[in-house]
Design goal:
By secondary structure, this protein is mostly helical. The protein contains eight helices and no strands. The two termini are 20 Å apart.
Length: 156
């Protein structure tokens, strides 16, 4: 999960924000082909991953979350697996999932690189104006505007 948090924050936040689509057994899932809402959900977020990495991300998510693998046509898992996943402290366990996210850093917190970028730009009024202009159109998933830091860091 830490690998996803660092290298693909979009996938990490998708998993964190859609717990029920990833954790637990898949025994109650009935594949409905193109009309399957679970399959549509997974295909939608996966389509937003850059093409060169898409298959690797899918393979990683399938290994971490057997339920997602089952939705993509892999092996199904019954509820008896929940106890095994819990014992092994796996992220796919309903009891363990939140543990993997409880120490995460909020999106509202500035990283050191972003803070350094803002401080460096503060000496140049034109750069500060550009940062605020760029940030004006950035909207968070919850619909609120992103703070000015959104485009301050050259690492983003």
């Amino acid at each position: 999960m830490e690998f996803l948090r660092v290298f693909d924050p979009y996938v990490y936040s998708t998993i964190r924000d859609n717990r029920d689509m990833f954790v637990g057994a898949s025994e109650n899932h009935r594949r409905g082909g193109a009309n399957d809402p679970a399959l549509a959900f997974h295909e939608t977020w996966l389509s937003k991953v850059a093409e060169p990495r898409r298959e690797q991300v899918k393979d990683l998510v399938t290994r971490l979350f057997p339920k997602a693998g089952s939705i993509w046509g892999g092996m199904g898992y019954g509820s008896e697996w929940n106890a095994i996943w819990r014992k092994d402290c796996r992220v796919c366990s309903k009891d363990m999932f939140d543990v993997f996210f409880q120490f995460g850093v909020s999106n509202d917190v500035l990283s050191r690189a972003e803070l350094d970028g803002l401080l460096a730009a503060a000496a140049d009024l034109a750069a500060v104006i550009e940062i605020f202009k760029a940030a004006k159109g950035v909207i968070r998933p919850d619909g609120r505007p992103e703070p000015a830091r959104a485009r301050a860091s050259p690492t983003r």
